[in-house]
Amino acid sequence: MNSTSSGAHSVEPRANWRSVPVWLLILILLVVYWSMLFFEQHGGWFSQEVYFPFRSEAELASYQPDSRDRDYLPGGKKVYEKACAICHNKDGTGKLNQAPPLAGSEWVVDAPARLIRIPLYGLNGPITVQGQQMVFPAGMPAVGSALSEDELAAALTYIRQTWGNNASRVTPEQIRAVKVEVGNRSEGFTEEGIKRVSEK
Question: Is 179 exposed, middle or buried (0-12, 13-18, 19+ CB in 10 A)?
Answer without folding.
Answer: middle
